[in-house]
Amino acid sequence: MSKNAIQHAKAEHLDFVIIDTAGRLHVDEALMQELTDVKEITKPNEIMLVVDAMTGQDAVNVAQSFDEQLELTGVTLTKLDGDTRGGQHSQFVL
Fold it and tell me: Which domain holds residue 79?
């Protein structure tokens, strides 16, 4: 599906494609391999991870695992205003 989206974007002279994958746990090796496969097929310029800040400190662990597997270019934290667990944002350095 990702490959088709890129082909369509090229045919329509579109500047970018956003590929949004289903949420997954960093400990699920099969799903992480699926992401690696998508990366190899699509050769993206940017790889962004969106993490719910409510996961607390584990958000840092998740980002580190994803970065090791996919070489992230950025992380977006959501729900920073909902809980003090959102404080882990200061620990993100890729």
Answer: 2-91
